[in-house]
Amino acid sequence: MALGKTQTAQPLAGAPFGDRRCRFELAARPDSVARARQLTRTHLARLAVCDDTCDTAALVVSELVTNALVHTVSSRIVCDLTDDPVTGRVRIAVCDEGPGQNGGPHPHPARSGDEDHGRGLLLVSAVSTAWGTEAEGHGLLVWAELPRAAVEAAAA
Questions:
Q1: What is the torsion angle, in degrees rounded to the nearest 10, for the CA atoms of residue 113, residue 119, residue 124 and residue 125?
Q2: Strand partners, 11
Q3: Which pLDDT value is given to residue 115?
Q4: Cα–Cα–Cα angle for 27, 95, 153, nearest 5°?
Q5: Are the CB atoms for 148 and 49 separated by under 8 Å?
Q6: In degrees, to the nearest 5, what angle opens at C-alpha 107 toward C-alphas 32 and 126?
Q7: Which residues, listed in sequence order, are joined to residue 146 by a DSSP beta bridge?
Q8: Which three-class secondary structure string do you get for the chain?
């Protein structure tokens, strides 16, 4: 796949969760944020995930992809969506290629004094039941979990 193009979200055949999981790769450029939102909404709506969770998932993927664009020198960003019927959770994971040779910062929650920037992960934390980070090669995988159903979301 050429880096200038985006890929359609595809279910991962033979993977755990079968068609309840999809992965897509995006070129690391600003218009990929909107594409990530659109692919996320489309995949989750196809699985009959409630509208509120689809909206929240689109917000979360937007924040995570934006962080990967702003805080890394990635040429591509990989998004992975999993709808787990056993736990009733939707998991969103975004993986970048790392901070580059200068070792620049990866995303972090906002600190005092971050007036215009740094609120993305605070927002992700506020709307998610759980979130975290994992080293992934030279890059970082940032994930968040959401309740699949609006009833559970209202109770959380």
A1: 10
A2: 22
A3: 55
A4: 110
A5: yes
A6: 90
A7: 90
A8: CCCCCCCCCEECCCCCCHHHEEEEEEECCCHHHHHHHHHHHHHHHHCCCCHHHHHHHHHHHHHHHHHHHHHCCCCEEEEEEEEECCCCEEEEEEECCCCCCCCCCCCCCCCCCCCCCCCHHHHHHHHCCEEEEEEECCEEEEEEEEECCHHHHHHC
What tens digit of pLDDT does each residue of 49-74 get? 999 999 999 999 999 999 999 999 99
Query: Residue 153 contacts by C-beta under 8 Å, 6 or more apart in sequence?
Result: 50, 52, 53, 56, 146, 147
Domains of the chain (ranges plus CATH)?
29-109+117-155 (3.30.565.10)
Q: What is the pTM of this model?
A: 0.79
Tokens coding 147: 């309740």
Structure token pair of residue 72 = 């890394």
Q: Are strands 76-84 and 21-27 parallel, antiparallel or unpaired?
A: antiparallel
**pLDDT surpassing 90 at residue 152:** no
CA distance 57 to 124: 10
Give the tokens for residue 138.
């030279």
Cα 153 from Cα 156, distance rounded (Å): 5
